[in-house]
TrEMBL record:
Gene3D superfamilies: Hypothetical protein af1432 (1.10.3210.10). The lineage of its organism: unclassified sequences, metagenomes, ecological metagenomes. InterPro entries: HD_phosphohydro. SUPFAM superfamilies: HD-domain/PDEase-like. It comes from marine metagenome. This is N-methyl-D-aspartate receptor NMDAR2C subunit.
Length: 209
């Protein structure tokens, strides 16, 4: 991850020299040994996807900060990682960044629970960036799924499959996987195809052997 980029963002939002310490803490989180998908590589991918989108959608510092922190906490087996990540951001940033901005970033992080379609512009942007990997070619998309399986090693195959199916079916129940026109144009077709193909593949016995 790019420490200079984080430092610049933190400064634009009103922070100071504490950016170095906070970036170090964030880097240590994403380097935890139990991570396979939700690593620094995922954050780099998200920021690259965000950068491509800004040509159409414009720069949004709230969205960028939310992307840095949205997977900061990964407790294996927890259903509250997004809440914990948002809380950790508030804990770190609350003394340095404007209160309203901290709240906005926290809410954007919470949107990555993917519980519902949202009309909040920042949340839509964050969600679409985070899901942009669904629009990759199949081989890369399925490779990400394999990393998620490694990360969920505490689950047996049946429970992992059930969780994946629940999430994928929820996305299919929405008007589209993506909320914004840019991401719909760039990724929706591939994402829909990948989801349907993965749902079929998950039916195969011994898929993860």
């Amino acid at each position: 991850m790019d420490g200079d980029r984080f430092h610049d963002l933190w400064g634009r939002l009103g922070g100071g020299s504490e950016a170095d310490r906070i970036f170090q803490a964030l880097s240590e989180r994403y380097d935890e040994p139990h991570r396979y998908y939700h690593t620094a590589d995922h954050i780099v991918y998200c920021l690259s996807s965000y950068d491509r989108a800004t040509g159409t959608m414009g720069q949004n510092d709230v969205v960028e900060m939310a992307l840095w922190f949205h997977d900061a906490i990964l407790e294996i087996g927890s259903a509250e990682n997004e809440q914990l990540s948002a809380d950790w951001f508030v804990e770190l940033a609350g003394s340095y960044l404007p209160r309203e901005l901290v709240t906005e970033v926290s809410q954007a992080i919470l949107a990555t629970r993917y519980r519902e379609v949202t009309r909040e512009v920042d949340a839509q942007f964050v969600m679409d960036v985070d899901l942009s990997g669904f629009g990759q070619p199949w081989k890369a998309f399925f490779a990400d799924t394999c990393l998620l399986r490694q990360e969920a090693s505490h689950l047996d195959d049946a429970r992992f499959r059930a969780g994946q199916e629940l999430f994928l079916e929820r996305l299919l129940s929405w008007p589209g996987v993506f909320h914004t026109q840019y991401f719909q144009d760039q990724y929706e077709t591939n994402a829909q195809e990948n989801i349907h193909q993965l749902l079929e593949k998950l039916k195969q016995p011994d898929l993860w052997v």
